[in-house]
Amino acid sequence: MRTLVIAFVLGAMAAGLALVVAGLALGVTADAAGWDSFRIGAGAVVLVEFERDTTSTGTTLGNGVPLAALAFGTVGTALALWAGRASVVQSVFPLVFVVVFMSSAFFPRELLSEPANSIADYNPMSFIAEAVRDPIIGSITATETLKGLLGIAIVGAIGTALSSLALRHRLRAT
What we know:
Helix content is 68%, strand content 11%. It is mainly α. The protein has one domain. The chain has a three-stranded antiparallel sheet, covered by helices on one side.
């Protein structure tokens, strides 16, 4: 049980921290550029919202941030269920950096060389990063926002499916 909690918390914290930093950086950029307001999200799911009025500016991180953290937490949970030991989960943490660097999270796709560029085309982390980066580079588009939400849904679905399979395997083994 301790392994599950550690895995879930590490995955959720990593994703949540990355999105909080990106959201706040986006708010600072919007403030410096003199924007009045923007919203990244679809329907009830909001990642970041920025608003300026006559007396203040504000950046709000929406309900999409915990959803993304939850999605990435499920991947860590699946690993913990499969391995059964906290040390295995903790030792896999460096692979998270490989996944992030094989996406467009740190560099725009134009700057990625092959094979990283081809891998970034299918990496859900790229969809999420580009949804947050889109308003900084150009304007907010529905396509990029929906791709970001799709990336969150893909990670959550994969993590949930893997967790279910690992739990079924663990229960059969005992």
